[in-house]
Amino acid sequence: MGLNVYLSGEIHTDWREQIVEGAQGLDITFNGPVTDHAASDDCGVAILGAEPNKYWHDHKGAMVNAIRTRKGIAEADVVVVRFGDKYKQWNAAFDAGYAAALGKSIIVLHGPDHQHALKEVDAAALAVAAEPHQVVEILRYVLTGKLPG
């Protein structure tokens, strides 16, 4: 049994790389959003044409990015949603809600400072992890039935 895992959320730390590296040897395909911040912000205007109004600039980018996000979440067996410390990830909260609406298995990843703010998101998840290595161990257990250590 293999897993298709979508890695959603903040793009400012290496949490994705930690999970992918930790899951080496497991039958997992990882997908996620474009993590090049400039490319993600500017994809709409770079492809569809410039916008003098920042709202429409951002709107075009969000729509183009949503094509990738919707496909990735729809095809995922598990959606990991990371909420980082530096910025508020409204897009991550939206992704978690979309995944929940599709009945996807969700693992939320965040530190203790976000417990209250994310209580509804956490309630929709099947697991809430504080560290990337915990996500790896959950995925390993799901695939192999083996506990850490």
UniProtKB/TrEMBL annotation:
Lineage top rank: taxon: Bacteria
Protein name in the entry: YtoQ family protein
